[in-house]
Structure formats: structure tokens, C-alpha cells
Specification:
2% of the residues lie in helices and 66% in strands. It has 178 residues and is mostly beta strands. It has one domain (9-176): Porin (Beta Barrel), CATH 2.40.160.10. Residues 6-160 form the Porin domain.
Length: 178
Amino acid sequence: MRGSDLHGLTGHAMYAFGNSGTGNGSKQYSVQASYRSGPFAAGAVYQYANFNSTAGDLNSLLAGFHSQSASQLAASYEFSFAKLYGEYTYTNNDVLNRGFHVNMFEGGLSIPIGTSRILASYAYSRDSGGLNQSRQTATLGYDYPLSKRTDLYAVYLYDHFAGLSSGENAGIGIRTRF
């Protein structure tokens, strides 16, 4: 057992006091728990943030935005031939005179090929509150390590938002972690 690790289970909590002791901006908090045992890992997080009309707060940009809460559940399992993962996120937005929420599902995999990896992911989301729009995003990538801290990558992304044209993007790059 190390630190706050209890047989693979860890947890964290956060509270932000905000810029002042009054107003909605002082109510922001988050709690998180995760579990890891061998090839299996899972996590859950909840966060809540109130907004006010203070300059720089989200409500000053989007009038009537009162609060936002988000819940997320995720899990992964690493087989010898691939790592699979999935996630569900529920975001609730409280806007003056109405509110809306977004449900998002994502799944993906990582397939090792020697020291490199093929990566793939698909996400689907739908919102409510009168808009009732959906979004689908798919990615395919390749990651090749040059060293422990540096890798080359190539990625393709397809994105479709209901009622709009689809978008595609591709990129290559080099990344170094410090």
C-alpha cells in the first residue's frame, strides 16, 4: 500500500473557494475514485461548478448559464493482443429558463505491434433540451516510440455533427514528454 492506495483503490476530492466568498462562483467541487487490479482498471468522477456574472466566469460569456455538473464512468482491460476501453459521460447544464444534458459514449482499442501501437476510437453523443443533436467522431492512429520520452505519430479523424457537413483531419508529428 502506498499513499492513498488501498488494494488498488484510490480516491480524491477537491473544493474550490472561487474568487469571493459570496455568489455562485464559490460552489465548485469534484470527487474521483479509481481501481486497478492487474489488466483491469476502472474509474468514476463527478464534478459540479456554479457560474456567476463576474468578469471571466462562463456566465459573462453565455448569459443565464447557472451551473454544470458532469459524471463519468470508464473502464479498460488489457489483453495480450490489445487494450480495450470504454467510457460514459453525462453532462448536465443548467441555463436560465431551461436546461439541457449531453450523453456521450466512447469506445476504443490499442493494438501493440512490436514497440509501436495502432490506436482506434469511436464516440457518440446526443444532447437534449430542444436541440436534440447528435455527434459522431472516429479516429485512427499509429504511434511509434523513438525513445522512452519521444514518439512519432500519425492520426486521422472523422467528425460528423447532426445537421452540418462532416469534417476530416489528419496529422503527423513528434512528441516529447518531460
